């Protein structure tokens, strides 16, 4: 069990937690940076100031209460659907790969990919706005056509770690995959 | 000579970029400008010939002025619509006779229209204009007068700009349409339906038929052409002068500049012309680019 | 190579015995289905397994032995190991739990190890020792084992998505390992019938249903549903016979039926009910889809009818119908009055726009006369409105959708004048737009070349030019008047179309929403599985890896997508841009679409 500090593509600190359950079962957890309180304050204050400005002209208190409601629901929706707390990758040799991301509210979205559908795990590069980023992805194949990559599942999509972190994950994954061929 | 100097060897330099040569990239030799040609196909203009051609532009300007003068008279009630109508009809018949006479002098028709077709067209013009004149009368009722004037001025300008001065015989669509639009706009401000009718007949005469006749005169009787142009110009200035002196002054200034000063400038500036041609002419894209627009 | 053992959670605390299950070929994994406790007679076990194999068409075998040592059962292990000679297998699993440990330990004996028993035994013991020491030295050459614990009941009942059509019982196994596991557990249902409390020769541990009290009620319902279904089917066939009568397919009637939403809804409902009576599809996967579709249709019909009855009970209480009818004529009058005011406003100088006075007057009078006609039509109808409403309300007993469709049709009939205005305005406007566009080409000296589909330049004759320009000027100056009338009546029409569209959408929603599947997803999330997810259970050094397999329920959006009942599409087929374009050039828009049934 080790916990190291890396940074994501925008320079924020993230942590990679690598847990070895067995020689062929490893779990990698990438924790995204926490939501900064300043940002929350800025958004909340701007909405409320806007609401107060409207209230100043219309003198309708419904504006203020609706602003509070909007802020609350916005925050709830944000932590439930947008803000990803950590993403984990569970590699189980000869069984498959499980990708899960848990949101800040505790909601967890999990997908399991069977070994018979996995062709390989690779590090890919992509153009992201004005920079080139690297990402880890699972190449899938159809059992009927084992030589063709049918689709690609990108991993760690919301935390977007940098290459050094990805390389670490990649090496351990490849180790397990090659052991279980 | 290239800035980097030429290495001395036996391989001759070729003006190509697609193959490797033992020269620096920016190297050129003496043969580089051999194929340069200057002012290819230039025409030497003579002043009075240019003035004569410019006379056509001047007389078209005057035609517009005459039309406006007639409209002004009609609007102030100084000219009865019947008078205008009969006058223009007589003028049209006279002009038609002259046109026929000039035609029979030279070529016996190649794509000639019969008298029957001509009279059919004339009947069509007259009946349509007469039938629509009450509608046209009410057309611009709710539009403000300034808008109508602005629109007419714009359209007359478009007529003057797009008029095909080189070959006016079948009048250009845009120029004729613009002039007719302007005359419909102006005619609809007149007090009665008969006024509208007469005004449109007159517009047809001035903008559609007169250029055909003038072209025929220019082709077949070049001696008289200058006289006719001068006459029309004097008529235009005089007519406008009877209504507004400032307009007449402006018109005469415009006429002088178009027929005398502009040709002078053209002949003068011709000396400074320096057009170069050569094998480096930029590529011309002849494809229809409009399909990229949508 | 890693050996995967799918172990049911209910067998965690089973007494020692034999493991019954299946080896999954090609994936090196075993599914444990049940534990048969000792004492047993091996011949009986063999017979029982053969019987089960015939019933479930799963090649069941004895996988190995299971031991949960209790006090005073020390000699058990050697006995269990001896069993491997009685049930000859390629590989023999020995799974045991030990005191003080939550994890299992497993040994795999291959055939030669079983045959040369004594040296093998020693080797095993050695290995065990090394395991207990926690040493990793010998692990490399050892076969590794993953225990995957699953909940037998959920896995048996769940259906993996996407449902594969070719997955069937004709021998072609699916390629995916998980699908094979799910299929095996689902098909070995006969194995789970053997009760724990039965006094048979064999006792076993596996998932068991808690009881069968409710089954009497279910049985009674089943009995009752047979004649009911028969009756409904007979009525349905009579109805379809009436529908297929030739007199109804004559041109004007058929056209009318395709435009009246009540008739469309009727035919749709008939079709759906006919599918309910269709015979069940044979293969397993198709059967699942078929069952879900039928259940969805049935539940939505029942909901529809109950909502309709609710509506009816409101309608026929306290003279509600009379009240509605008496309100309707004044409402129509008020609408007409408002329209008249609007027309009067348009005939003046609306919003300071420059309208052509003569044309304005003509159009305004024309529309005013139309309103007058419509009002007299309404007043003629006034005595019958209550009757119409009373009989129309009866249609609600067929379902809420019928009532809504009828309402939509009635709205269409009552706002017929608005439709007429709209059509006149649109036709006039369309004519103007087309005329202006072609005359504008003439104005520039161009024409539309039909053969090459492009604009070419063209030299016109003098008279063509003259008349074209005259008409262009006239049309241009008259355009604002027509455009204003068109705009106002299009807005009115859009309000009606919007209302009808909302009605159609709600009818479509009731028709197509997979209510049963959605309820199943909410109440029994494991029944519709999208996949599985694993959790690492316990980590003790020296035991194998234990994973817990949980079922990942299908997302609600994909539930709707998969089980949505196909219906005539009522959603706008053309995009908003196309609609705006149509409005701009004055083409007619309709609330109904080309009704083509979506193919599944």
UniProtKB/TrEMBL annotation, chain A:
Recorded GO CC terms: glycosylphosphatidylinositol-N-acetylglucosaminyltransferase (GPI-GnT) complex
Keyword line: Membrane, Transmembrane, Transmembrane helix
Transmembrane region(s): 40-57, 63-82
A Pfam short name: PIG-H
Pathway: Glycolipid biosynthesis; glycosylphosphatidylinositol-anchor biosynthesis
Domain Phosphatidylinositol N-acetylglucosaminyltransferase subunit H conserved per the UniProt entry, residue ranges: 88-157
GO biological process assignments: GPI anchor biosynthetic process
Keyword Transmembrane recorded: yes
Domain of life: Eukaryota
InterPro entries noted in UniProt: PIG-H, PIGH-H_dom
UniProt similarity note: Belongs to the PIGH family.
PANTHER family: PHOSPHATIDYLINOSITOL N-ACETYLGLUCOSAMINYLTRANSFERASE SUBUNIT H
Protein name, entry field: Phosphatidylinositol glycan anchor biosynthesis, class H
Organism expressing this protein natively: Xiphophorus maculatus (Southern platyfish)
Record lineage: Eukaryota, Metazoa, Chordata, Craniata, Vertebrata
From TrEMBL, chain B:
Gene Ontology CC annotations of this record: glycosylphosphatidylinositol-N-acetylglucosaminyltransferase (GPI-GnT) complex
Protein name: Phosphatidylinositol glycan anchor biosynthesis, class C
PANTHER family: PHOSPHATIDYLINOSITOL GLYCAN, CLASS C (PTHR12982), PHOSPHATIDYLINOSITOL N-ACETYLGLUCOSAMINYLTRANSFERASE SUBUNIT C (PTHR12982:SF0)
Pathway info: Glycolipid biosynthesis; glycosylphosphatidylinositol-anchor biosynthesis
Primary location: membrane
Keyword Transmembrane helix (UniProt): yes
Record-stated family: Belongs to the PIGC family.
Gene Ontology biological process: GPI anchor biosynthetic process
Organism: Xiphophorus maculatus
Spans traversing the lipid bilayer: 193-213, 225-242, 248-267
Topology within the bilayer: Multi-pass membrane protein
Pfam families found in the cross-reference section: GPI2 (PF06432)
Superkingdom: Eukaryota
UniProtKB/TrEMBL annotation, chain C:
Gene Ontology biological-process annotations: GPI anchor biosynthetic process
Signal sequence annotation: none
Swiss-Prot/TrEMBL keywords: Membrane, Transmembrane, Transmembrane helix
Xref: Pfam families: Gpi1 (PF05024)
GO cellular component, one term: endoplasmic reticulum
Keyword Membrane: yes
Annotated region (Disordered), positions in chain: 117-141
Chain ranges passing through the membrane: 297-316, 362-381, 388-415, 421-443, 464-488, 494-517
Basic and acidic residues composition bias: residue spans: 119-132
Protein name according to UniProt: Phosphatidylinositol glycan anchor biosynthesis, class Q
Species assigned in the record: Xiphophorus maculatus
């Amino acid at each position: 069990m080790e916990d190291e500090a890396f940074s994501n593509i925008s320079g924020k600190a993230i942590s990679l937690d690598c847990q070895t359950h067995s020689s062929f079962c490893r779990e990698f957890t990438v924790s995204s940076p926490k939501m900064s309180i300043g940002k929350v304050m800025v958004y909340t204050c701007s909405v409320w100031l806007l609401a107060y400005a409207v209230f100043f002209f219309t003198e309708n208190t419904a504006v203020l209460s609706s602003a509070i409601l909007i802020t609350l629901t916005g925050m709830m929706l944000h932590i439930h659907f947008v803000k990803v707390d950590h993403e984990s990758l569970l590699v189980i040799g000869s069984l498959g790969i499980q990708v899960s991301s848990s949101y800040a509210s505790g909601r967890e979205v999990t997908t399991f990919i069977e070994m018979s559908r996995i062709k390989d795990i690779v590090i890919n590069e992509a153009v992201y706005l004005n920079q080139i980023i690297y990402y880890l992805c699972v190449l899938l194949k159809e059992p009927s056509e084992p030589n063709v990559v049918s689709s690609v599942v990108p991993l760690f999509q919301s935390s977007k770690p940098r290459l050094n972190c990805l390389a670490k994950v990649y090496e351990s994954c490849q180790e397990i995959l090659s052991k279980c061929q | 000579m290239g800035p980097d100097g030429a290495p001395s060897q036996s391989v001759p330099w070729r003006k190509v970029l697609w193959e490797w040569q033992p020269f620096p990239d920016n190297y050129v030799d003496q043969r580089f400008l051999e194929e340069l040609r200057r002012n290819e196909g230039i025409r030497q203009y003579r002043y009075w010939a240019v003035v004569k051609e410019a006379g056509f532009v001047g007389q078209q300007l005057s035609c517009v002025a005459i039309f406006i003068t007639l409209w002004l008279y009609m609007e102030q009630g100084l000219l009865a619509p019947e008078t205008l109508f009969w006058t223009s009809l007589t003028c049209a018949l006279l002009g038609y006779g002259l046109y026929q006479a000039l035609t029979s002098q030279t070529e016996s028709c190649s794509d000639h229209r019969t008298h029957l077709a001509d009279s059919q067209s004339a009947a069509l013009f007259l009946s349509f204009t007469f039938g629509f004149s009450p509608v046209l009368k009410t057309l611009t009722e709710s539009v403000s007068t300034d808008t109508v004037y602005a629109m007419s001025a714009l359209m007359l300008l478009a007529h003057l700009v797009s008029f095909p001065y080189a070959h006016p015989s079948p009048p250009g669509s845009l120029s004729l349409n613009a002039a007719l639009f302007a005359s419909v706009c102006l005619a609809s401000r007149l007090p009665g339906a008969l006024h509208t009718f007469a005004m449109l007949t007159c517009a047809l005469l001035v903008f559609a038929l007169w250029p055909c006749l003038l072209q025929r005169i220019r082709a077949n009787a070049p001696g008289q052409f200058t006289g006719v142009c001068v006459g029309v110009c004097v008529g235009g200035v005089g007519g406008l002068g009877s209504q507004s002196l400032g307009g007449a002054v402006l018109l005469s200034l415009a006429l002088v500049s178009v027929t005398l000063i502009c040709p002078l400038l053209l002949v003068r500036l011709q000396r400074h012309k320096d057009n170069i041609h050569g094998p480096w002419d930029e590529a011309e894209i002849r494809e229809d680019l409009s399909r990229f627009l949508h | 190579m890693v050996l995967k053992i799918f172990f049911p959670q209910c067998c965690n605390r089973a007494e020692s015995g034999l493991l019954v299950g299946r080896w999954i070929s090609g994936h090196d994994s075993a599914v444990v289905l049940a534990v048969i406790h000792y004492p047993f007679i091996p011949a009986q076990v063999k017979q029982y397994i053969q019987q089960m194999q015939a019933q479930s068409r799963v090649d069941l075998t004895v996988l190995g032995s299971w031991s949960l040592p209790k006090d005073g059962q020390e000699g058990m292990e050697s006995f269990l190991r001896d069993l491997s000679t009685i049930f000859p297998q390629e590989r023999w699993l020995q799974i045991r739990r030990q005191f003080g440990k939550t994890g299992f330990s497993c040994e795999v004996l291959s055939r030669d190890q079983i045959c040369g028993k004594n040296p093998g035994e020693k080797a095993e013991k050695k290995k065990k020792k090394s395991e207990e020491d926690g040493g990793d030295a010998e692990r490399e050459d050892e076969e590794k084992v993953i225990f995957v614990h699953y909940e037998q009941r959920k896995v048996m009942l769940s259906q993996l998505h996407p449902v594969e059509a070719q997955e069937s019982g004709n021998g072609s196994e699916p390629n995916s390992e998980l699908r094979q596991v799910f299929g095996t557990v689902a098909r070995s249902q006969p194995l789970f019938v053997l009760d724990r409390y039965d006094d048979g020769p064999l006792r076993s541990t596996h998932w068991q249903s808690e009881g069968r009290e409710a089954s009497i009620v279910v049985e009674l319902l089943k009995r009752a549903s047979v004649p009911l279904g028969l009756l409904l089917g007979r009525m349905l066939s009579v109805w379809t016979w009436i529908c297929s009568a030739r007199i109804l397919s004559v041109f004007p009637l058929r056209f009318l039926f395709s435009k009246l939403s009540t008739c469309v809804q009727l035919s749709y409902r008939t079709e759906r009910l006919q599918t309910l009576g269709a015979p069940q599809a044979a293969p397993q996967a198709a059967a699942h889809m078929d069952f879900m579709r039928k259940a969805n249709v049935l539940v939505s019909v029942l909901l529809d009818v109950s909502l309709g009855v609710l509506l009816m009970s409101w309608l026929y209480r306290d003279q509600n119908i009379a009240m509605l009818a008496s309100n309707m004529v004044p409402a129509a009058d008020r609408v007409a009055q408002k329209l008249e005011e609007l027309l009067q406003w348009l005939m003046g100088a609306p919003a300071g726009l420059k309208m052509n006075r003569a044309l304005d007057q003509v159009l305004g009078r024309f529309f005013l006369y139309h309103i007058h006609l419509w009002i007299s039509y309404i007043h003629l109808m006034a005595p019958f409105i209550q009757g119409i409403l009373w009989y129309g309300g009866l249609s609600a007993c067929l379902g809420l959708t019928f009532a809504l469709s009828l309402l939509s049709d009635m709205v269409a009939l009552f706002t017929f004048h608005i439709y007429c205005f709209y059509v006149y305005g649109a036709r006039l406007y369309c004519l103007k737009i087309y005329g202006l566009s072609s005359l504008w080409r003439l104005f520039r000296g161009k024409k539309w070349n039909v053969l090459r589909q492009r604009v070419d330049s063209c030299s016109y004759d003098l008279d063509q030019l003259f008349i074209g320009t005259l008409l262009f000027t006239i049309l241009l100056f008259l355009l604002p008047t027509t455009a204003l009338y068109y705009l106002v009546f299009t807005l009115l029409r859009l309000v009606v179309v919007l209302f009808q569209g909302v009605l159609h959408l709600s009818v479509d929603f009731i028709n197509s929403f997979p209510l049963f599947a959605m309820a199943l997803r909410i109440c029994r999330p494991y029944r519709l599985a999208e996949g599985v997810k694993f959790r690492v259970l316990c980590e003790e050094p020296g035991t194998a890896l234990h994973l817990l397999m949980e079922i990942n329920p299908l997302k609600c959006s994909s539930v709707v997508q998969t089980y949505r009942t196909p219906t005539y599409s009522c959603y706008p087929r053309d995009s908003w841009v196309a609609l705006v374009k149509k409005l701009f050039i004055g083409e007619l828009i309709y609330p109904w679409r080309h009704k083509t049934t979506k193919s599944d």
